[in-house]
Amino acid sequence: MKKGSFAVLTALAFVLVVGVARASAQASFKVPFAIKAAGKNLAAGEYAVSKTADGGLVLRQEATGKETPLAVTERISAPAPPPAAPQLVFDEVGDFAPSYTEYITVYVLSEVWLPGEDGFRVHLTKGAHKTRTVAGEPVKK
User: What's the mean pLDDT when you consider all of the chain?
Assistant: First the structure.
């Protein structure tokens, strides 16, 4: 009986610790343009970014609930002073698609900045490009 109770309490403590850690590293964003993240084309809308237990990131599209894991290529040291709000940084690149007759702008998610964290690089664009930043709000639970 004691072993069973201990196992239940240990599991509950683990869930609470993971939940608190996850809640402290979440942010929500309103992205006003279509984006590309982790090789997927996503519509404009509301998104949430959260840190996973293994240190990775997940981008969640609020309208559909669809989650896209983001591969972190490197951690970026926070500048001085660090960003005041959570941020998504997009590389603004051009593309000829879908008919090769029209030049369109593609916004590729390149960096994620969460409250109290160094940055996460999720894509590196080589060559000339502009950046566009979308500020977010920390998620409070």
Answer: 83
